[in-house]
Amino acid sequence: MDTKTSGSLQPENNQKRGLQHWQMVTILLVGYDVLAVAGSYFLGLWIRYDFQFSSIPGASLKTLLCFIPLYAAFVVVVFWLLRLYKSIWRFAGYSELLRMILATALTASVHLGGMLIFQHFMGSRMPISYYVVGAVLQFISTLGIRFLYRFVLLLRGRKSVTEESMKRVMLIGAGEAGQIILRDIKGAKETNEKVVCIIDDNPNKHGRFIDNIPIVGSRQDIPDACKKFEVSKIYVAIPSATPGNLKDILNICKDTGCEIRNLPGMYQFMTGEVSLAAMREVSVEDLLGRDPVKVDLEEISRFVRGKSCLITGGGGSIGSELARQIAAQEPEKLILLDVYENNVYDIQQELKKRYPKLDLIVVIGSVRDSRKMFSVFEKYRPELVFHAAAHKHVPLMEDSPCEAIKNNTIGTYKTAFAAMAFGCRRFVLISTDKAVNPTNIMGASKRLCEMVVQAFNQKVKEGKAEEIPQLFTHWADEGVLTDRIRENLKCARTEFVAVRFGNVLDSNGSVIPLFKKQIAEGGPVTVTHPDIIRYFMTIPEAVSLVLEAGAYAKGGEIFVLDMGEPMKIDTLARNLIILSGHTPDGDIKIKYIGLRPGEKLYEERLMAEEGLKQTENAMIHIGEPIPFDQDEFFRQLKELMILAYKNNADIRTAVEKMVPTYHCTGTPAAGENGPEPEKGEQQ
């Protein structure tokens, strides 16, 4: 039945020494079949005569004894030809069953014909029930022994798993989704899990059973039930749960120390994707407990569809998600610009695969290079620009403040100027809540970016765009501003806006990848301060709101995204440790290292001078712009650019003069003083 053949590397003399295991099993099986066939038809005759051996006619018994040896030999031949002695019965299935049915039908027919011939010569007649009962018993006995072997092995395997490594599972949710997960666990062929209890908040279900599994209580009973039933894994199968309810349940579950899996949500339930395989690890996003961001997809579609779009910083976390969501809205053309080729290559390959008909262009270049930006805008003429290129890492920019000004502020200026010069319809700056009352150079540089787009927008509205100076950091003889471009500036209609939001989960530079790496290394997890808080949003949520804000824009606005309730970084770190299967302050230590230069305990979304207006989307607000002298700002910005390209260590003082709300807490970085750019150097 179980053909455990010798390995191909076994020496030949060992193979010749004796019969292999499967051959021994075949001989025993042949002997069993002979006895089973003879016994089946004898029982058929015996049953016909009410189990009274003395009642069986002598002629019938003699006919059976004469015919049965020939018939048994025929059965063995048929079984051999149908490969019923060469099957591996521990893996027997539908094919073996069909062959056994065919063998029984064939041999039973031959038995009927043979017995009729024998009866003619022996002068006896066998009852009809003899043929029917004998054939049925033959089928049961010959098939049964084969599948019994497989069944015994299966029971032995299940018993072994149960005793040694069976995981005891708690299922949360006694609804339809929970029943599907329960059925999947029970029906899995290879599983080491067993559902031992169910939790549901509906009191009408308490004390009842689903498929013999007890419903033991509501969410408050989770800790006690985990101890009572020795639970090691929890499946949360409530796709209809609100974010707040799900957060409460998951917070209770994570304190049990059990492994937790969660069903993604209603979308999977409605599309029939609910299954054991669909269960995923609980993420930090699940613990935010915030209602899902709702956006007007039709508004976004009208804003983007059929238009040529440029995304700077297209390979970054925000830029790449912008690319994904814009590509889904069928733009006429999508241009991704980035100075770092690896990341933008990844998103290029992803979009090519998902949207093969998309007109996708990838450009490697820096927003700090005026000539490059002019050539990109002149060649592709984008109608919409999403400016996401920026240095965003606060501590690194504190060490290199001039780079923050060059890349963030001057890069924004040059990109915005090129957009205006070549007829771009709308320019959307991706800003940050760190631009509000900044205490670090990165935040101050982004506040300057906001002032750039406000100044540009004001000049365009006044019809004075040609008065905006072009900031150029090289001394080449040839000019960039042609007469045609100057004429373009006179009739410029570009609308400039900024969108300000806080931290996004898992973005480049986010604390989450750092925490995950530290946890993987065994700790410690470094938190700057136990009371530090930040606003958080997922990358897709933030980008969706950016696109909708861009659709609302009329020019000059600073859109402020509602990031929900702030979260303590310390709480975030502890949740990540727990979700990774560890214990905070136990096997993974938390170390407080103090606030870094330029860092503050909390971020603000608005400055005191700014008001707040509501838009059609409750999560998007408009901050009233703070007036300032644009001409003086442009003059100061040119001086700031020169200081930055000289790598002047006193750059923060100049920034403080331009951004009154900037309160410098950093110190001049060593090595920032450097040589002036040489003539002919293009930036």
The domain tally reads 3
Radius of gyration from the CA trace? Answer: 39 Å
Q: Bin the strand percentage.
A: 5-15%
What is the CATH superfamily classification of the largest domain?
A: NAD(P)-binding Rossmann-like Domain
Q: Given the helix and strand composition, which structural class is it?
A: alpha/beta
What's the total count of β strands? 22
What is the highest CATH level, the class of the largest domain? Alpha Beta
The rough form would be described as elongated
Description:
By secondary structure, the protein is of the alpha/beta class. It has three domains: 150 residues, no CATH class; 117 residues, Rossmann fold (3-Layer(aba) Sandwich), CATH 3.40.50.720; 300 residues, Rossmann fold (3-Layer(aba) Sandwich), CATH 3.40.50.720. The protein is 47% helix and 13% strand. It has 22 helices and 22 strands. The strands form five sheets. The chain has a nine-stranded mixed β-sheet, sandwiched between helices. A seven-stranded mixed β-sheet has the order 3-4-2-1-5-6-7, sandwiched between helices. A two-stranded parallel sheet has the order 14-17. Strand 21 and strand 22 form a beta hairpin. Helix 2 runs antiparallel to helix 3, helix 4 runs antiparallel to helix 5 and helix 15 runs parallel beside helix 16. It is elongated, with a radius of gyration of 39 Å.
